[in-house]
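To: structure desk
From: M.T.
Subject: fold request, one chain
Message: Could you run this one when you get a chance? Sequence is below, nothing fancy, just the single chain.
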Amino acid sequence: MEENEMKIKKETNLISIIQSYSEEKNIDNNTDLFELNISSIEISQILSQINREQSIKLTFADFMNCNTVNDLQKLILDTAPQMEQRAGKQYKKNNFKPTNVQMAYLTGRNSGFTLGGVSTHIYFEYDSDWDLSRFEEIINCEIRRQPMLRATFLAGKVHINKVEDCKYTLNVLGSKPDDFNDVLKAQKDIQKYRNFNPSKWPLFNFTAIKNSCGKSKILFDIDALISDGFSIRILFEDLVALYRGKEVNSISNKQLLNLLDTNSENVSDKSYWQNKILTLPQAPELPYSNKFSSVKKPTFSSVRKTLPLELWNKIDKKCEAERVRPTFFLMACYAATLAKWSNQKDVLINCTLFDRNNDLPNANTIIGDFTSVLLATYQRSKMFTWNSIKRFQTDFIHDYQHKDFDGIEVSKLLIKRDAKPLTDVVAPVVFTSMLFNKSDKNLSLGNVQNYATQTPQVTLDHQAMLTDDGVFLNWDYVDELFDYATISAMFNDYYGLVEGFAENKNSSLASKNALAAYQIFNDTKDISVLGNSMLDRFNKSVKLYSESIAVEGQESSITYGELDFKSNQIANYLLQKIQVSKGDFVAIVGMRSIDTIIGILGILKAGAAYIPLSTEFPQSRIDEIKRDSLYKDMLTDEKINTILSGKINESVQPLPNITADDVAYAIYTSGSTGKPKGVVIKHGAAVNTINDIICKYNIKNDDVFIGLANLAFDLSVFDVFGAFSVGAKLVLCENPRNVEEVWDLVTSSNVTIWNSVPMLMEMFVTFAETKLNSEDLDFSLLPKLRLVLLSGDWIPIDLPNKITQNFMDCEVVSLGGATEASIWSIYYNVKLIDSKWKSIPYGKPLSNQTYYVLDDFYQPCPIGVTGDLYIGGKGLASGYLNNPQKTESVFINHKEFGRIYKTGDLGYLNRSSFIVFKGRNDSQVKINGFRIELEEIQNVILKMPDIISVIVVVKHQEILVYYVGSVTEASILKYAGNFLPGYMMPKYCMQLKEVPLTKNGKVNRRALPDFKESSINQNVSSDAPKNSVEEFLENTISDLLKVKNVNVTDNFFELGGNSLLIVELFNEVQKKYPNTIKLIDIFKNSNIFDLSKVILNQLEKKEAQNEK
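Reply: Done. Structure tokens follow.
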């Protein structure tokens, strides 16, 4: 009987506890817990009360797994007592250690930290009709009753000042009707992003600006060192209660410190995170407008919007139906948006926890910073659904069970894992939910007009707050890191995602702005450049310019009429002797020669497609291509000469009609497996590109092309058929790397059109600069270049200016694309070079072609977000010859964009509506968890004086640099250190006499020499202390860390040091050697050897000044 009565009593108590946190009054054992609309904070409070009364330890996850009150009641009855109620320590002192979060705030405000130099600060602005004298009285009353309002921070400790030393005077400003706004703005500029001095009281401020109506505008700001978001609510409610004459109990130091007291380190939680650290992702790598290191002191702005109460209620009900807490719903929407905007499959979000020890009485009446942080992982999927949110909620709750090893400690593990500088940023994207229920409207200080926060080492901070009108969604962001258009688009995508769930079961992650931008960007339709076959315009040129020179070689030339006649001979030979037909392939081996071009034309006239093979190909490669392509015949210059000499007599017959859908050529490119793959291009695809370039740059028959490209390289297709399409002359260069030969051809033949990889032009323009500055220059032989087409590799940022400075009226065009999309698909007319550019823009699609930046789920990346580049449109190849599996892997049928090709390149669409190229997927490496763009390192070193060329590679997870220039390895590393973060610094550098090139003029990375050990030796010869400063530091660190045998090269943090111990070390150094170091110096010089040098250097300076 007694047992049954006890059970009934427990059931009654549980219902009573739950009822005190819910507006629902009819609660019984069958009540669904989710339908009670209890916030996460209130769940923690309910659990604390249950645990305290029942001497058990139920967790947040336990509550979430219970559907009804009865489920929870059963769990309570089945759980044996596991702990005794903590009494709390009896604190009597006014000085105590700060929390982990407070230490992070204190160290983060140091300007030596990345994105540091600011305090964690909260600002409110509201209207009030309160009597200001009375207001000042109750502020002082609240100061007397709340210890943290009297707090300052001295020597790494929290100091609670005496009541009698904390008399506060309200700052009251008068104003006239015509200057109220000026006074408000001036005061707002002071308070909105103020940096309080933590050692000076008070760490908050109220200012009242009186207006002509007898009311006041109240500006309130406070340092988050002494108050979290929940505490501000407590403060406001206390002030209202006191103003109305209600009695409010005082808080003692003991109560405050008992609440701050936490259990000793949870070993199992630490072990959990040490294991999980191996798989934790990076924070979202958002489309920042600047590098973190460029921001010396961040300034903050906001984007915000209130989700109407009607929509929020719909979401609330859907969350209830899906058994999802509203906080997790918003957090998941936020994380999903940021994953989209960083194009990452998983991201790390820094989540604020209001982590009061609710086991203690009056815990929710005490002001202070009781927050901790949890680093939450969001894993992205193709569709964002309720299941996505539930999965995130489950993962979060699982991590939450191990929160005693908090996010600050986890961040330290991440710093070590990623080999980051101790002053660097780890998790700068924050989410804070302040969906506190039961807020009494009557306890508001007034109508809030403005609100702002700032936090060191944070780039983006989301807050969600319940208001009378709905849910206030606010993003604080660092001005210097986001342009307004980008942050607004991000926020709008997030808001749209949240809003969409109010109306639909699932919502879309697709960015409407991005889709619209791509539609405009890819509006390239132009039927005027479409054509039938590559021979059509050649045939027209034959009729118009029969006697004109078509091709000029080193020792001979050929007219259009002769070229037509001889290529017909080759076509007839193939048709009669070889019996080729449409769809057959014929290989042709040759370099840049008239005979080879005759052969190419003859193959096409016969209705076959040509496969160009270089004479420099090894026989094994030719054999492999023959096995793969099953080509019907092979032409060589010798064989062509035999046919043309008349030793083989061919009867003339009608040549086949060639259409746009017939195959024109197959060019073999390197395959990732080592086996070459043949890219099959149809006539119409190639003609579209060729005609478009001709039209865009007004190429005519009086232009002269120089043929620099190897015929096995698809740039040669434009050289040959671009010239033939307009009846222009093509001048063949036997050796493009012989700059003197190139110069002679360009000047003597009056070349106007240049088409090559950038390296060849760079060699030419360097040679030209010498020629053009020589005293014996023949002005009749000045280059007549008017159009330079550069593609196939990175264009050095300074090359276009060199070209236009040396060749007057020359237009420079950057072209890009893929062999798989008919020579080129994208272009950019290079005119003025923006000093902010890191590379020449990739540009816009050519006519009838399209370009997309897609993520791993084939969805368009938002503007500014790097993703994989895909090409669509008329230029696409049919695929890879006899390789359907490879074709299907990269030629994709997209449901919205049609057939597209994955290039393997990376880039993003910018707000100027052109694509910025970011390199190959394989040139973006990952070292210690960080994405590193090798071209970025290259561009930094290229800016160094006396550097000519730079190649950056990665071997064995180390960054290595090859360079041509008259500088030393040490000077390169020193220079690069001024611009690159530690994880991007090269390990070694090797000097080359020249950059090895492939036959096509590209950098030949395979020919780079093996790296040998660097000549630089930075090792310290001895680990033993050598002077009194080192001895002092060794003894001090040993004492602080409780370790023996500390060597001068041992890293302080790896020995067990943390932020708090650093402050203690700093204080000891200040006592022994006053004003010789700053706190940041210990972070930057984290071993005895380096730190002693800083101290000794300052001591020497002081001694020198004393002698003066």
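Reply (cont.): The two ends are 94 Å apart (CA to CA). Let me know if you need anything else for the meeting.
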